[in-house]
Amino acid sequence: MNADTPSAASATPARRFYGSVTVGERGQIAIPAQARRDHGFEPGQKLIVLGNEDGVALMSAERLLALLDDSSALAALVAASGADALPR
Predict the structure, then answer these.
(1) Maximum Cα–Cα distance for the chain, whole Å?
(2) Given 15, 43, 47, 61, which is the most exposed site by the fewest CB atoms within 10 A?
(3) Are 78 and 38 in contact (CB under 8 A)?
(4) % of the chain residues with pLDDT over 90
């Protein structure tokens, strides 16, 4: 399946498979175009990388800060990463 097809494969409306990416020599990946469109990721936008033993996930800093209580430990880490200057 090509991630650039009009609609990515979905097991449920909340979960989608956008394809696969390859980690480059400098550790970089490209987010598939359909995933960028579906989630509104724009060039220069700050994304937060979350993870656990199963893998990693990306979320816009704006969305994560909107979901977090300002007093949470994760909110403090996001703010320390430079995302505290984002509009809320």
Answers:
(1) 42
(2) 43
(3) no
(4) 44
Determine the Cα–Cα distance for residues 87 and 3; give it in Å rounded to an integer.
Answer: 31
**Tokens standing for residue 45:** 């936008």
Instruction: Kindly report each contact of residues 13-17 with a partner whose C-beta sits within 8 Å and lies 24 or more positions away, as own/partner.
Output: none
At 15, the pLDDT band (50, 70, 90 cuts) reads: confident
Q: What is the pTM of this model?
A: 0.66
Alpha-carbon span 3 to 34, nearest angstrom: 6
Give the pairing of strands 55-60 and 47-52: antiparallel
**Rounded Cα distance, 14 and 82, in Å:** 29
Q: Are 88 and 65 in contact (CB under 8 A)?
A: yes
